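Input for the complex:
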Amino acid sequence: MNNYSRILSGMRPTGRLHLGHYHGAIKNWISLQYEHECYFMAADIHALTTGYDDTKNIASNIYEMVIDWLACGVDPAQSSIFVQSHVKEHAELHLLLSMITPLSWLERVPTYKDMIEKLAHKEIDTYGFLGYPLLQSADILLYNAKYVPVGEDQVSHVELTREVARRFNYLYGREEGFEEKALATMRKLGAKKASLYEELLVKYQQDGDDEALEKARFLLQDAINLSHGELARLSAFLENKSRVILTEPQALITNTPKLLGLDGQKMSKSYSNTIMLREDLDSTSKKIKVMQTDPARVRRTDSGDPARCPVWQLHKVYSTDEVCKWVVDGCKTAGIGCLDCKAPLIEAINIEQDKFRINAEPFLNDHNMVRNILADGAEKASAVASRTLKEVKQAINLDY
Ligand code: TRP
Ligand code: SF4
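Predicted:
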């Protein structure tokens, strides 16, 4: 990974964050911000795609989320922290990209079908919801972000972004002369191969088909009648035919294992199995005390297996090697009870939450501090976004 590359990530403002957000995403943001130019965005327009009918808490949700980011250590001196709707270019680029994005690309994004099924009770068969991942593409491409730290579930959105960028560059980034030269070389492949090559090229560059790239490369390998120079030209034609106006980003998948919730499923607000970053000791401790354990361990005298226990998943994140060993031994031999096992965990989580509570305090007391951070972040983000949008409009010939 190159140093100092640009990074963008975002979250929909759903209010206060839980420990899963910290271990699954924000911890990673914090380490990235010292080595890269980072942009972290509250995706409020994305929140509207499913929450358009209940917007009264959107402002407070943004504040709560941003305060949590700050409490975790996202540093406004290192990163630009901003709200999506404050930077108008997001909406404008989304609109322009929507002109070149085939509907089928959006319909085949796996999260689309999943969500339509999951939210069957709700009217989300909307224009905006189908465009959700394209708006995300606009978020990323505006900053020419090289890396996008996201969870596994968002990888298909980054993939779509790559395809859209490629199509944009193909449509609007072609340089004069180069194409003719390359076409002349292509003819040397012989009529049949040349037309196959051209077909693959279009499939790759215009339709985003990666398999076509592989096939075209393969076809070039077999072209014995071409010189090295000619081969090089065709390869360049294949992969870099156009001027790069929008950068194809890469997903940076957070490699920390997902923090599991109180019931052993992924920790998520929609499963009501979360512990909040700034939840107080009393309530945290109550939640952990009633948390599910190995179902086979019914009585105190039954031995258990940590591998089947959600509590153990939390120990793996929070406890020292020594404590982990004590848990495994004690559980397997019924040497400790589940409440004994949970005590050091409650303590470790509370130590972490204490840090968050202390860090959040000044922001909670003075919302102006947050407002200023967001204003400053929007200003820095706008500077980059407006430059990209200008280039985009020039490329489309919309610069009159
Ligand atoms: N879709 C992301 C999520 O639900 C949030 C998001 C919006 C995002 N725009 C983004 C993430 C751009 C990364 C990059 O978590
Ligand atoms: Fe889970 Fe700990 Fe109980 Fe074993 S002792 S079942 S690891 S809570």
